[in-house]
Amino acid sequence: MIVTESRFQYTGDLAEEPLPEILRTIHHYRVPGVVTATSGDVVKKIYLMDGNVIFATSSDLADSLGAFLKQSALITSGELRISADRIHASEGKRHGELLVEMGVLTPEQLRQIVTEQVKAILHSVFSWEKGVVTLEVGRFRTDELIQLDMSTPQAIADGIRRLPDPRRVVSRLGPSWTVFARGEVPAEASGVAWGEGELKLLSLVDGRRTLRDLITAGPDDVSMNAKLVYAFWVLHLVTRREAPTSGIRKIQWKTRSGTFPADGGGTAG
Fold it and tell me: Could you give the CA distance from residue 75 to residue 109 in angstroms, rounded to a whole number?
């Protein structure tokens, strides 16, 4: 990432550094601000306060509350059409607020829906392979009544788990013979609620097992194990240790999403 001190702004390139790694760097400094991710005509913003993700917005109509509700089959097309008409006639009322007034949703249902919508917007950027990310440091005002209070490490872990394709993850981790050791952050201090199987995979990291060992011996499928090792690495629960490459043959692993090479040589930063 590039730091522009005069503008109190960080800038990153998603082609060189995926969003999880950028968010981990930002979280290290615990600064408030707005992360803006831009790819083509789509702009998505992530609002951070005290190291937590509190909201996210998107210029993509497919990410709107109405689209999210329709896709989730939580309201009918008729209810959506009526609420959309009322938005134009109202004086600045939010779509969710109108749906509560109409009796379509309860306040608690709206909170749950908006929470899932914000998570979906945030996690959608995790799979972007190109685009620009900037962080404008500073306090900000938001008129959103519903806000998350999710730790950035938890948001990172959840987003990595939901990645549709593990191939780029594997390339960031290094070749299949890369050895991993335990990192500087213990699991209990990572800010993430890890599952039993995930902790079992972490326990296999002993400074001798290779990436291939971990991904094939882990308790989940190969694809998920790869994503989890990447999450551990991003959050500094594990660290990479290069191993000799003589006599190592290239391999491929089968996953639910197809075949991906295990010998990718991507940089790990």
Answer: 12
Who's near 25: CB < 8 A, 6+ residues apart?
1, 10
Name the region of 51 (left: φ>0; alpha: ψ -120 to 50; beta: rest).
Answer: left
Residue owning tokens 């999880």? 20
Cα separation of 223 and 177, whole Å? 17
| Cα 223 from Cα 238, distance rounded (Å) | 18
Q: What is the pLDDT of residues 51-72, one digit of tens each?
A: 788 889 999 988 888 888 887 7
Residue type, 146: I
Instruction: Look up tokens 């993430």; give the residue.
Output: 192
| Choice among 5-19, 111-125, 162-176, 245-259 with the minimum mean pLDDT | 245-259
When computed from its CA atoms, the radius of gyration of the chain, rounded to whole angstroms, is: 21
- 148: tokens are 């998350």
| C-alpha–C-alpha distance, residues 166 and 164, integer Å | 7
